[in-house]
Amino acid sequence: MSPTKVNPREQKGFTIAQLDGAVKRIDDSTYQVRSQSSAKKFYDIVAIESGWKCSCPDYVFTAERNDGIAKCKHVFAVEFSLSLRKAVEIKRISPIVQTDNCIYCQSTSIVKDGLRHNKYGDIQKYNCKSCGRYFTINLGFEKMRSTPEVITSAMQLYFTGESLRNVQKFLKLRGVNVSHTAVYKWIKKYVKLMNEYLEKIKPNASDTWRADELYVKVHGNLKYLFALLDDETRFWIAQEVADTKYQHDARNLFRNGKQIAGKVPRTLITDGLPAYHIAFQKEYWTNKDRPKHVKIITLRGDHNNNKMERFNGEVRDREKVMRGLKHKTTPIITGYQIYHNYIRPHMGINGLTPSEACGITVEGKDKWKTIIENASKKVS
User: Fold this and answer.
1) Measuring CA to CA, which of 11, 150, 319, 357 is 20 to 30 A from 133?
2) Model confidence at 6, in pLDDT bands (50, 70, 90)?
3) Closest to 91 in 3D by CA, of 352, 363, 347, 346
4) Residue 306 has what pLDDT?
5) How far is C-alpha 293 from the geometric centre of its chain's CA atoms?
6) Which pTM value belongs to this model?
7) Which positions ≥6 away from 216 have C-beta within 8 Å?
8) 180 with 164: CB under 8 angstroms?
9) What domains appear along the chain, each with residue ranges and CATH number?
10) For 364, left (φ over 0), alpha (ψ -120 to 50), or beta?
């Protein structure tokens, strides 16, 4: 994707955009672009009503000669950087509605042949013309008494804020008699399955991340949930529950974030907690790679913590319904992380899910079922 017109500034901007770390995103409307003459010097590019404004002398000179309209190579670099991000291949997780092969002999000569009547629904039966055997396709939900729709409805209700007992009451209204313990077992089973599958899919995260912590009750005791969030897409990259706040080692959190995203952030925004600074120095900062750590949070301006506070409130609302967690290794936090990233649309990113903003699209009406089917297929 190179510029079509021969424009020296445009060509130079395209070259800059290709360099690793040359274009840094500060927030939605501010970027920094490295100078071509000095690797240590960066120019500020800020969004304005008519486009972008750069702090470099070339922009100022050109703007004066063209009534305020100008595009220097650094502005072009930002525009190309944004275009390159949008051009990243979208990873699609599609529903597996039926197989093309017999599960016994792998023949493609299969036809639909009636329904298997389950207590809580019907499942399509198939007949193989080659081996003559009948089979059903219930990928991910084999040997389950309840249908996939019942199970995924229960998970959706729970992670949107209902208690286990309220989910049980809702299912009873639909003629499904299960205990609240059974609902929890569904959640435990499928959260583990989905997480093992999804953690192998790398999100196209931005270059600015945020980290923060909030207290949670675990079996009646005060613990802290440390979370790493992508600033641009709201993608919840990594999390861990710690016994303490001020003595916690956050290196494992940052290391997991680097492994999941496949890179380190160019800018990390946190509060002044020493654990973040130490982990940042150990995991992200090297002599060759020097990202920026912003640890002075203000109520207003570019480095406010509003996005992280909104995220903390989202998690807090869910925790209140549960009245605390039972143990540190509970699947509930990981399950909510999956719900936050892949199921729940966010108004702050134009109604997209964070995964969609990161280039991962989960297709189908029932996204829970789509993920479970794909995760089960990978396992098998």
Assistant:
1) 150
2) low
3) 363
4) 72
5) 22
6) 0.73
7) 222, 223, 224, 225, 241, 319, 324, 325
8) yes
9) 8-87 (no CATH), 97-138 (2.20.25), 208-379 (3.30.420.10)
10) left
